[in-house]
Design a protein that fits this description.
Blueprint lengths: L1 H15 L5 H4 L8 E4 L18 E5 L5 E8 L7 E6 L5 E7 L13 H6 L14 E3 L5 E9 L3 E11 L10 E3 L1 E5 L10 E5 L5 E5 L7 E5 L11 H4 L3 E2 L8 E3 L16 E7 L9 E7 L3 E8 L13 E7 L4 E5 L13 E19 L9 E6 L3 E3 L1 E4 L7 E6 L16 E12 L5 E5 L8 E11 L2 E22 L6 E12 L3 E7 L6 E10 L4 E3 L3 E4 L10 E5 L6 E7 L7 E5 L10 E6 L2 E5 L6 E7 L2 E7 L1
Antiparallel strand pairs: 1-8, 1-10, 2-7, 2-9, 3-6, 3-8, 4-5, 4-7, 9-15, 10-13, 11-12, 11-15, 12-22, 14-26, 16-17, 17-20, 18-19, 18-21, 21-26, 21-27, 22-23, 24-25, 28-29, 29-30, 29-31, 29-32, 32-33, 32-34, 35-36, 36-39, 37-40, 38-39, 40-41
Length: 624
Amino acid sequence: MLRFVYLIIFISIGLRLSAEGTKQLRPAESDKGNIQINDGGRPFALETNTDTLHRLFIHINNTSEKIYFGFQPLDRTVGKATFRIKDPNGNVVYAKTNVPVASGDDGFIENYSEAVTGPQIMGLPLGGYKPLSLVPTIVGDYYIEFAAIGTYHFDIFDITVVDSLNNPKNGRLWSYAWDLNTQSPDARYNATMFVYTADRYTTSVNLNGIQPWGFVISCNGTGPRSTGNVVTNRKSVTGNQTQPKYKIFLNQPDPVVYPSATAPSMIEDLALMSIPITGSPVKFYLNMDKSGLVELFLGVDGILGYQPRNKDVVITKNIQAGGDTITWDGKDLTGAYVSENVVVEVNSRFSTGITHLPIFDAENQTRGFIVNRITPVSERASVYWDDSLISGTTNLIGASGNTDGHVWTGGFGDSKTLNTWWNGYENDNLKSFTFYMDGTGTMLPITLTLFTATIEDGNVRLRWQTASETDNSYFEIQRSVNGVDWEYAGWAEGAGNSTTLKKYTILDQEPLKGVSYYRLKQIDLDGKFSYSAIRSVSFPKEIIPLFNKFTASPNPALNSITIELVGSITDNVIDIYTIQGKSLAKEISIIKLNDLSYSIDISKLVRGSYILSVNGDNNIFLKE
């Protein structure tokens, strides 16, 4: 019996061991990626460094824990480099020692396999390396320092923390700024690293084959600069402008030591603070229970959704928790005041845990970054960038594919700081609504939550709904062939005064051929009027009834939508987009029920308005 118990304990020790170092920096043995010391005078983990932002830290949470470590340098000259370890108070607790360079020495890792297997404790696991060790006497962040003659590369290294039972404590090795090298300008770096923000959001970033040669990985909450202007700060720039601020780990940060934030919630909806008047600033109000970044996408050109580099405007502000205001100057992107005959379409995004990855001198990134949120929510994250200052591309809508998350080629990153950012938490459909600006400052007396125009059996079905109405007499439907000259197409009586959901529908049985446009003219009891945003439909010049037509129900929908086609084609193309135009294909699942019916699972979408696209025809629906 005693022999059996001894065997179980012995095996369990071997199974629990892990490694933290090369195992993560080089996911495969053929991968490139090692830490480097004293490259170009950079201070990472140097004995002479006094800047805490450039240290290599090992966190100890309990004095019963122990640190095991080992190395294999590229240069195996004895005495070429030394190391020492300091405790959280800066006291040397592991005396200055030559880096082990000879096979068989304690602390020398013979090969990649040993590094991945981890340190041997009591002879296990088999295949592990013989480590050096340190028994801590206080808790906190220890740090290891090196002194080297010239640039010094560790092809292989491992630093593992274990508890009193020799269970590995992953997520304890970290730095604000990792100094790395791929040993060749063409070699790809494939590691995934974990970022822990100041507001306690954790995300992982897969570098996905970036080609940087020697480089520093660091993250912060602003971008290459910190001027106080959000838009200016996040733009990529020429020269080296990285600012280490966030902890970066090789594994997911130990949740016992690095707890997660809680997801934010909205206390009061985004809303206008007062009547918007043409030629004057417009103020919005939003009350969130956490601070974060608000982005307002203002559509002012009459085209559904935000149109980059058109007249549409993006307003950004870091708001405080407990209620804050956001101001728009009332001008479009050209600098002209939005006139009184324009309906402003508002869509919004709220983000926290904002993480910027400004990388200097990374020549090529042909595959883009892959980012995942880890805590407090677990999901794929979109990445954004703005390379407009250095004649590159810009994406403020977001990319979340495996090959499109900020790509640059042809050595474009040479001597530049290329910035990419993402959000630890993001509500991409915080609030959507429209309002009308005119010279008298008259607001829309209705809250229009839906207005769609869709083809139905050779006709155009117009649907709209209001959440509230004030002194609303009636609606007039207007249509146009060019979006400028309008004609009467029908009418519907209004509800007068209402605070409940009202639904309306009209069928245009004599639609125009080709592309046509529709809008609502809302008329008050006193004769004043205002206009809605514009919707468009497109008929073939020869109208073919029942072709590519679809209906979607229910609307609003909670968990799923059913699409019914009348007439089918071989390959139906179905997708859902945010109002800003970003595809949500990865957030939905589509099940084909039969040749004419599909069911779409939308349970993962947040509450708000979305665009449903079927074979190029668009319809708007509400997610409850």
